[in-house]
Design brief:
By secondary structure, the protein is mainly α. The protein has twelve helices and no strands.
Length: 256
Protein backbone atom coordinates (compact mmCIF):
# COMPACT_ATOMS: atom_id res chain seq x y z
CA UNK A 1 0.00 0.00 0.00
CA UNK A 2 1.50 3.32 -1.02
CA UNK A 3 1.70 6.45 1.10
CA UNK A 4 -1.19 8.48 -0.26
CA UNK A 5 -1.58 12.19 0.48
CA UNK A 6 -5.34 12.67 0.67
CA UNK A 7 -5.05 16.43 1.08
CA UNK A 8 -3.30 16.59 -2.30
CA UNK A 9 -6.07 14.49 -3.87
CA UNK A 10 -8.73 16.85 -2.55
CA UNK A 11 -6.81 19.92 -3.73
CA UNK A 12 -6.32 18.28 -7.13
CA UNK A 13 -10.05 17.63 -7.52
CA UNK A 14 -10.83 21.16 -6.34
CA UNK A 15 -8.37 22.66 -8.87
CA UNK A 16 -6.29 24.29 -6.12
CA UNK A 17 -2.85 22.97 -7.14
CA UNK A 18 -0.17 24.88 -9.01
CA UNK A 19 0.75 23.63 -12.48
CA UNK A 20 3.83 21.65 -11.46
CA UNK A 21 2.10 19.86 -8.59
CA UNK A 22 -0.93 19.13 -10.74
CA UNK A 23 1.31 17.60 -13.42
CA UNK A 24 3.01 15.45 -10.77
CA UNK A 25 -0.35 14.21 -9.51
CA UNK A 26 -1.52 13.35 -13.03
CA UNK A 27 1.73 11.49 -13.65
CA UNK A 28 1.23 9.52 -10.44
CA UNK A 29 -2.33 8.68 -11.51
CA UNK A 30 -0.93 7.17 -14.72
CA UNK A 31 1.79 5.14 -13.01
CA UNK A 32 0.29 4.20 -9.64
CA UNK A 33 -2.93 2.11 -9.93
CA UNK A 34 -3.65 2.31 -6.20
CA UNK A 35 -3.33 6.08 -6.19
CA UNK A 36 -5.51 6.28 -9.30
CA UNK A 37 -8.15 4.14 -7.56
CA UNK A 38 -8.19 6.46 -4.55
CA UNK A 39 -8.56 9.52 -6.79
CA UNK A 40 -11.44 7.81 -8.60
CA UNK A 41 -13.05 6.94 -5.27
CA UNK A 42 -12.85 10.57 -4.19
CA UNK A 43 -14.45 11.61 -7.49
CA UNK A 44 -17.34 9.21 -6.97
CA UNK A 45 -17.92 10.39 -3.41
CA UNK A 46 -17.92 14.01 -4.59
CA UNK A 47 -20.30 13.13 -7.43
CA UNK A 48 -22.71 11.42 -5.03
CA UNK A 49 -22.61 14.42 -2.71
CA UNK A 50 -23.29 16.88 -5.54
CA UNK A 51 -26.20 14.75 -6.77
CA UNK A 52 -27.65 14.56 -3.26
CA UNK A 53 -27.31 18.33 -2.91
CA UNK A 54 -28.95 18.87 -6.30
CA UNK A 55 -31.90 16.65 -5.34
CA UNK A 56 -32.27 18.58 -2.10
CA UNK A 57 -32.35 21.87 -4.01
CA UNK A 58 -35.04 20.48 -6.31
CA UNK A 59 -37.22 19.71 -3.29
CA UNK A 60 -36.67 23.21 -1.92
CA UNK A 61 -37.57 24.74 -5.30
CA UNK A 62 -40.79 22.71 -5.43
CA UNK A 63 -41.72 23.83 -1.93
CA UNK A 64 -41.04 27.50 -2.74
CA UNK A 65 -43.05 27.30 -5.99
CA UNK A 66 -46.08 25.76 -4.28
CA UNK A 67 -45.84 28.15 -1.33
CA UNK A 68 -45.70 31.14 -3.68
CA UNK A 69 -48.77 29.86 -5.51
CA UNK A 70 -50.59 29.45 -2.24
CA UNK A 71 -49.66 32.94 -1.05
CA UNK A 72 -50.58 34.48 -4.40
CA UNK A 73 -54.06 33.00 -4.44
CA UNK A 74 -54.67 33.53 -0.76
CA UNK A 75 -53.81 37.24 -0.86
CA UNK A 76 -55.78 37.78 -4.06
CA UNK A 77 -58.96 36.21 -2.74
CA UNK A 78 -58.78 37.92 0.64
CA UNK A 79 -58.63 41.28 -1.13
CA UNK A 80 -61.79 40.40 -3.07
CA UNK A 81 -63.48 39.43 0.18
CA UNK A 82 -65.46 36.62 -1.37
CA UNK A 83 -66.20 33.72 0.96
CA UNK A 84 -66.52 31.29 -1.93
CA UNK A 85 -63.06 32.22 -3.17
CA UNK A 86 -61.57 31.73 0.28
CA UNK A 87 -62.65 28.11 0.14
CA UNK A 88 -60.64 27.85 -3.06
CA UNK A 89 -57.65 29.10 -1.09
CA UNK A 90 -58.22 26.38 1.48
CA UNK A 91 -58.14 23.91 -1.40
CA UNK A 92 -54.85 25.42 -2.58
CA UNK A 93 -53.42 25.00 0.92
CA UNK A 94 -54.68 21.43 0.92
CA UNK A 95 -52.74 20.80 -2.29
CA UNK A 96 -49.56 21.73 -0.43
CA UNK A 97 -50.48 19.23 2.26
CA UNK A 98 -51.02 16.56 -0.39
CA UNK A 99 -47.52 17.13 -1.77
CA UNK A 100 -45.72 17.11 1.58
CA UNK A 101 -47.81 14.67 3.61
CA UNK A 102 -48.65 12.11 0.93
CA UNK A 103 -45.84 12.24 -1.63
CA UNK A 104 -43.02 12.91 0.85
CA UNK A 105 -43.88 10.09 3.26
CA UNK A 106 -43.55 7.65 0.37
CA UNK A 107 -39.90 8.74 0.12
CA UNK A 108 -39.34 8.26 3.85
CA UNK A 109 -40.24 4.59 3.52
CA UNK A 110 -36.90 4.05 1.81
CA UNK A 111 -34.63 2.60 4.48
CA UNK A 112 -31.59 4.73 5.27
CA UNK A 113 -28.84 3.03 7.26
CA UNK A 114 -27.09 6.27 8.26
CA UNK A 115 -29.03 6.74 11.49
CA UNK A 116 -28.42 3.18 12.62
CA UNK A 117 -24.77 3.45 11.60
CA UNK A 118 -24.35 6.59 13.71
CA UNK A 119 -25.88 4.81 16.70
CA UNK A 120 -23.82 1.61 16.48
CA UNK A 121 -20.54 3.21 15.36
CA UNK A 122 -20.38 5.69 18.22
CA UNK A 123 -18.71 3.19 20.56
CA UNK A 124 -15.64 2.19 18.58
CA UNK A 125 -13.02 0.33 20.61
CA UNK A 126 -9.90 2.28 21.52
CA UNK A 127 -6.45 0.85 20.78
CA UNK A 128 -3.28 0.91 22.86
CA UNK A 129 0.44 1.21 22.14
CA UNK A 130 1.57 -1.48 24.57
CA UNK A 131 2.40 -4.18 22.01
CA UNK A 132 4.09 -2.02 19.38
CA UNK A 133 7.78 -1.83 18.44
CA UNK A 134 9.86 0.56 20.49
CA UNK A 135 11.55 2.03 17.40
CA UNK A 136 8.17 3.33 16.20
CA UNK A 137 6.79 4.48 19.53
CA UNK A 138 6.46 8.13 18.50
CA UNK A 139 4.62 7.34 15.29
CA UNK A 140 2.39 4.79 17.03
CA UNK A 141 1.52 7.16 19.86
CA UNK A 142 0.57 9.86 17.37
CA UNK A 143 -1.57 7.55 15.24
CA UNK A 144 -3.28 5.94 18.23
CA UNK A 145 -3.96 9.31 19.83
CA UNK A 146 -5.62 10.63 16.69
CA UNK A 147 -7.64 7.44 16.29
CA UNK A 148 -8.80 7.26 19.91
CA UNK A 149 -9.90 10.90 19.75
CA UNK A 150 -12.00 9.96 16.66
CA UNK A 151 -9.99 12.26 14.39
CA UNK A 152 -10.25 9.68 11.62
CA UNK A 153 -9.25 11.98 8.79
CA UNK A 154 -5.81 12.65 10.28
CA UNK A 155 -5.44 9.23 11.88
CA UNK A 156 -5.84 7.50 8.52
CA UNK A 157 -2.53 8.51 6.86
CA UNK A 158 -0.66 7.95 10.14
CA UNK A 159 -2.08 4.44 10.48
CA UNK A 160 -1.41 3.66 6.83
CA UNK A 161 2.29 4.32 7.37
CA UNK A 162 2.30 1.96 10.34
CA UNK A 163 0.61 -0.97 8.61
CA UNK A 164 3.03 -0.68 5.71
CA UNK A 165 5.82 -1.39 8.20
CA UNK A 166 3.72 -3.77 10.35
CA UNK A 167 1.22 -5.50 8.03
CA UNK A 168 0.62 -8.29 10.56
CA UNK A 169 -0.53 -5.95 13.31
CA UNK A 170 -4.19 -6.89 13.00
CA UNK A 171 -5.40 -4.27 15.46
CA UNK A 172 -3.78 -1.50 13.45
CA UNK A 173 -5.14 -2.93 10.19
CA UNK A 174 -8.66 -3.01 11.67
CA UNK A 175 -8.28 0.56 12.95
CA UNK A 176 -7.18 1.69 9.48
CA UNK A 177 -10.22 0.00 7.94
CA UNK A 178 -12.47 1.79 10.43
CA UNK A 179 -10.86 5.10 9.45
CA UNK A 180 -11.60 4.31 5.81
CA UNK A 181 -15.27 3.73 6.66
CA UNK A 182 -15.51 6.85 8.79
CA UNK A 183 -14.06 8.98 5.99
CA UNK A 184 -16.27 7.54 3.26
CA UNK A 185 -13.74 5.20 1.61
CA UNK A 186 -15.91 2.12 1.89
CA UNK A 187 -14.27 -0.02 -0.80
CA UNK A 188 -10.86 0.43 0.81
CA UNK A 189 -12.34 -0.50 4.19
CA UNK A 190 -13.77 -3.76 2.85
CA UNK A 191 -10.45 -4.62 1.17
CA UNK A 192 -8.62 -4.35 4.51
CA UNK A 193 -11.29 -6.02 6.64
CA UNK A 194 -11.91 -9.10 4.47
CA UNK A 195 -8.52 -10.81 5.11
CA UNK A 196 -9.01 -10.32 8.86
CA UNK A 197 -12.28 -12.24 8.66
CA UNK A 198 -10.63 -15.18 6.91
CA UNK A 199 -7.96 -15.49 9.60
CA UNK A 200 -8.37 -17.19 12.97
CA UNK A 201 -7.50 -14.29 15.25
CA UNK A 202 -9.05 -12.49 18.21
CA UNK A 203 -10.06 -9.74 15.77
CA UNK A 204 -12.14 -11.99 13.49
CA UNK A 205 -15.54 -11.13 14.99
CA UNK A 206 -14.63 -7.47 15.38
CA UNK A 207 -13.76 -7.43 11.69
CA UNK A 208 -17.12 -9.02 10.81
CA UNK A 209 -18.90 -6.43 12.96
CA UNK A 210 -17.17 -3.46 11.33
CA UNK A 211 -17.67 -4.93 7.87
CA UNK A 212 -21.38 -5.08 8.69
CA UNK A 213 -21.34 -1.42 9.74
CA UNK A 214 -19.53 -0.47 6.53
CA UNK A 215 -22.20 -2.25 4.49
CA UNK A 216 -24.88 -0.58 6.60
CA UNK A 217 -23.35 2.84 5.90
CA UNK A 218 -23.57 2.04 2.19
CA UNK A 219 -27.24 1.04 2.60
CA UNK A 220 -26.31 -2.47 1.45
CA UNK A 221 -28.79 -3.80 3.98
CA UNK A 222 -29.13 -7.39 2.78
CA UNK A 223 -25.36 -7.96 2.77
CA UNK A 224 -25.10 -6.23 6.14
CA UNK A 225 -27.74 -8.55 7.61
CA UNK A 226 -26.17 -11.68 6.15
CA UNK A 227 -22.73 -10.66 7.45
CA UNK A 228 -24.10 -10.07 10.95
CA UNK A 229 -25.40 -13.64 10.99
CA UNK A 230 -21.83 -14.96 10.78
CA UNK A 231 -20.73 -13.44 14.10
CA UNK A 232 -20.08 -16.15 16.67
CA UNK A 233 -22.55 -16.37 19.55
CA UNK A 234 -19.52 -16.43 21.88
CA UNK A 235 -18.21 -13.09 20.58
CA UNK A 236 -18.50 -9.82 22.48
CA UNK A 237 -20.16 -8.36 19.38
CA UNK A 238 -22.93 -10.98 19.28
CA UNK A 239 -25.45 -9.03 21.38
CA UNK A 240 -24.95 -5.87 19.33
CA UNK A 241 -25.24 -7.89 16.13
CA UNK A 242 -28.57 -9.39 17.20
CA UNK A 243 -29.86 -5.95 18.19
CA UNK A 244 -28.90 -4.48 14.81
CA UNK A 245 -30.50 -7.43 13.02
CA UNK A 246 -33.71 -6.80 14.98
CA UNK A 247 -33.60 -3.11 14.04
CA UNK A 248 -33.26 -4.02 10.38
CA UNK A 249 -36.14 -6.51 10.64
CA UNK A 250 -38.38 -3.91 12.32
CA UNK A 251 -37.78 -1.53 9.44
CA UNK A 252 -39.44 -4.02 7.11
CA UNK A 253 -36.41 -4.01 4.83
CA UNK A 254 -35.71 -7.68 5.42
CA UNK A 255 -37.45 -10.63 7.02
CA UNK A 256 -36.06 -13.52 9.04
Amino acid sequence: MSNINYNIIQQYLDGELDTDTMNNVEEQIKNDPEFAAEVNLYKNIEKDFVQHFADTKKDEKLFITISNLQNKHFNKELKKGKIKKIWLCVAAAASVAIVFFILKPSQKKVFDGNELFAYYAKDINSISTSTRGAEQDTAVIKAVSLYNSKDYEHALPALQKLIIAQPNQNELVLATAICFTQTGKYDSAIVLITPLISRTTVYKNQAIWYKSLTLLKQNNIISCYQTLKTISYEADEFVKAKQLMNDIEKSGTIKK
